[in-house]
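dumping this here before i forget
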Amino acid sequence: MTAPTASARGPALDWPSAVRPLRLDATGVVTNTTVTQATATSGDLVVFPDKRDPSAGYLVVPTTSTLNFTKGATVPNLTITAPGTDGKVDLLNQSAGSLHLIVDVYGYFQSE
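structure:
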């Protein structure tokens, strides 16, 4: 799946949004997430479960990065992420520029 271009520090991309290749009972998803054509000198991408703070209504973003990149480089990383309660995984570009994302799904985990 090729995700839309992620804008600089814009809203997190909810994935999957239109297409749901995962089972609804998936407890984890294994992906190869690749950043390419980044315009910022350097930056990081965070892949994380879609979790909203119910009292504040905002997205809870982890403080660690999933993938670090530099301008013009193509950087892949294998990720294992639990989907949020809504079945979505978020991808957040924390750089000052834009980039392209490529997300390949390898598989998923589910409870017995």
